[in-house]
Each structure stands twice: as structure tokens, then as C-alpha cells.
Amino acid sequence: MKFYIALLIMGILTSNFVLSKFLGICPFLGVSKKLNTAVGMSAAVIFVMLLATAATFPLNKLLEKYDLGYLQTIVFILVIAALVQIVEIVMKKYIKPLYNALGIYLPLITTNCAVLGVVILNIDNIAEYASQGVTYGFGHAMVNSFAAGAGFMLAMVIFAGVRSKLETADVPKFMQGLPITLVAASIVSLSFLGFTGLVEGLGLLG
Amino acid sequence: MAEKKKISYGHEFTKGLLKENPVLRLVLGTCPTLATSTSVVNGVGMGIAATIVLVCSNICISALRKVIPSKARIPAYIVIIASFVTMVQMLVKAFVPALDQSLGVFLPLIVVNCIILGRAEAFAGKNPVLASAVDGLGMGIGFTAALFCMGTVREILGAGTFLSGIQTMIGSFVDLGSFNGFDFTPILEKLHLAPMTLFILPAGGFFVFGVLMACVNKIAEGKGLKKADQLGCAGCPYAAACGKTEAACANETEKEAAAQ
After folding, report:
1. Which residue range(s) make up the domain with A33?
2. How far apart are CA B221 and CA B25, in angstroms?
3. Secondary structure element (H or E) that encloses residue A54, with its range
């Protein structure tokens, strides 16, 4: 149980996917202009991350069994792409409200580095935690993926607020647009540094 | 540029360096730029790996452009790119394990680097092989140059070193003697200063990137070039691939144009 909580805190606060691991920067900068699109996009990301992990984590075992670990990248990206397409079709047919809410974001997420990143990091975690004497199983991978997605959502929502303030600010001409957005992102990222050591401090990791 | 009958190779090569620099002007590939530019050696290593993938995938996609059906082009491109990434990954693991260690997850993530799919979609899918190779090389060098600039600023300010760790990267190929980068920390200590660690932390990455982009905007403005701010749908390399948002994108782009 402790380990699950540790994974959640790490994913959301101490090693936030966007602000300290630099994964998913494109949607972070591109879609965070308005709060509702930020929330919609993040919800879709959480959904796809969970789905992708559920599919690829067992698949990795199969790859390793036949000594095909080197095919990881190519297999994972194809599985994620196919999965997103299938889910989109199923959702459109049977779960219309959910499709209306998340649908437009789904094709954009297929090739989002946050999704492939979380899937690969989950596989890397197995070896990393094994060296510390901790087993990292399917449940852990799912919790980790959820935490990563939730961290993405937190960063997006906070940043949507920051950006709405930026719009009324008087910014020097050459800093307008992206440069000032990046500097603002830097300050938001800086505030997340305050959480450093939280997991160790609470004694959640043995 | 793609519609021109006559292709000027010089132009295709140089446009990626400055005018259409993928990182600083087109704002593509921001994730690896921010994550791997903590030191010059890391950043340039990432740049070279991505350049190799970009040139190879551009050549391959351009050679197959008449065979790949346009409806299935994105999956086909992804498979081609992923194959080259896997090859590069294996080569790096075998010959430069230190780089594999420091790039970590960002090495396989070259697959989803917007620059590569973006160039496949925007250039290699429509142009002959040689031009695509030159385009890929130019863009790759532009990417590497941007990473070099970011890495230089962040390493000197954040760690007080320059080219540190070069021995572990190319030491086995080139005899560097005992040279392992410049270390400015003794000088700083004499002045009772310490490196600003902030700059190698994520926050510093965002900051340096923002300031660098502002500088490039300022220079571009002097030369009368358009502003780099292309985020939103207009700048998205998948805009053409995602049919569903196409209409929404056109709307948004129009709105943005009207607002300016």
C-alpha cells in the first residue's frame, strides 16, 4: 500500500511528467490556452495511458519470453496506435457522450510522447525497482500510469490559469507569445521543486 | 517550397539551419530539447541520433512515396521511423553506452519526435530522394545546433563546465588525451561564486528555451521574417493527419489570423 501511495505522490508532485520529466510538452503548451480544453485533453491522456499500459505491460512479458526485447519501441507504438483507433470506433458507436467529450483529442494522443514515455518507463521501472529488492507488477504499473496522467492534468489545469492571467499582462513585444509562456512554465516548474524529498520524508519508500 | 519544379539543394539544406530551424522557429521537438540539453555532450548526442534517424527515414519514405497509399501513410511512416529508431538504439547501446544511460527514455522516444514525422509529412512524402536527404540533414543539423546552444548556456551557468563528459562519449573513437571538457568551477570558487544549479534543473530548461526563442524572434524581426509563434493547430504537424479536427483547425487558424 505504501508503495502505491509513493507512486502516486511521485507521479503527481515530485516527478511531475510535464514539469520535471519533460514529457508531453507539445500539448502542455498547445492546448493549455483554455481550461475546458485542458481538462478534456488531460482526461483523454489519462484514459489512453491506462489503456496503453494495460495492453503493453503483459505484452512485454511475451516479448521477453521469446527474446524479442529489442522490438519494444516498434511494437509499442503500433499497439498504442491501433488501440486508440479501435477505442475511438467502439466509443463512437456505443458510448456517445464520452466520445463527444474526448473524441477530438484521441487521434492527437497516439503519437504523444507522454503516452509512449509512460509505457516505456513502466518497463524500465521493473528492472530499476528489482535492483532495490521491490517487485513492480501490473498493479504498480497501472497506478504509475494513472499518477502520470493525473500529474499531466494538474500541470495543465494550473498552467491554464497562469496563461489566462498572461493574456492581460503587458509583455515586451519580442517576448510575446511562446517565449513568455515558456518563462511562465519555468516558474510553475520551479514551484513544483518545493515537493522534492516528499516521498523520502514520509518514509514511503523502504 | 515543395511545389517548385527545380530544387535548390543549397536552399533545402540551409533553411533548416536558421530560417526554418525546427526547434526555435517551427517549435517542434520541444520535449527532447528541454530534457536532453542539460549538458552540451548530451544535447549534441541526442541531436546526432535524431539526425541519423531523420536522414534515413526521409530517404526511405521518399523512395517509397509512390508505393505508400495516402490513406495509410501515417502508420507506414511510423513503422519506418520506428525501425530506424530501433537500429539507432541498438547502435548507441553497443558503442556509446554512456549516451544511452544519459538519454534514457528519450532515445526510444525519437519515434514520436514531431520533427521527424513532421518532415516526412511535409517534405519527404512529396519530394525526390536526394532532396529529402538534404532536407533531413539540414533539419537535423538545425536541431543539433539548437540543442548545442541550449546545452552551452545551461551547462556553463548551471554546472560551471563546458563539454564535460566528452571522454565517455567519444573517448573510445577519438584520442582526446586527458581532455574531458573545461571546468570553470575553480575560477568561480576564487570569486566566491557557485554554479547556478537551477539552470540544469527543469525550471532552467524552460527559462533558457524561452529566452533563446525571444532572442531568435528579435533577430528574425529585424530581418522581416514571420514570428515563430505557431502553436495551436496551425503549427501541429499532425494537423493533416487528424481528419476530425481539420475543420476545427481551419476555424481556429482563421480566428487567430483575424485577431492579429
Report:
1. 2-193
2. 12
3. helix A35-65
Across A4-68, where does the E strand assignment appear? none
ipTM given for this complex: 0.87
CA dist., res. B164 & res. B155, Å (int) = 9
B201 vs A: CB within 8 A: yes
Contact yes or no for A192/A154 (Cβ under 8 A): no
Give bridge partners of residue B183 from the DSSP assignment.
B161
Q: Is residue A201 part of a domain?
A: no
Which residue has 511494437 as its cell numbers? A75
CA torsion through residues B226, B229, B233, B239, sign: positive
- Residue B119's closest CA among B56, B68, B43, B67? B56
Which pLDDT does position A59 carry in this prediction? Answer: 92
Tally the domains of chain A.
1
pTM for this one? Answer: 0.85
- Is residue A203 a part of any domain in this protein? no
- B242 to chain A: nearest residue by CA? A107
Cβ neighbours of A39 (radius 10 Å)? 15
Other C-beta atoms within 10 Å of A42: how many? Answer: 26
Contacts with A71 from chain B: Cβ below 8 Å: 86
Helical spans, DSSP H, in B64-107: 73-95, 97-103
Nearest to B114 by CA among A110, A181, A152: A110
**CB atoms A116 and B30 under 8 Å:** no
In a domain, A206, yes or no: no
- Does the residue A205 lie in any domain? no
Query: What mean pLDDT do residues B32-38 have?
Result: 89
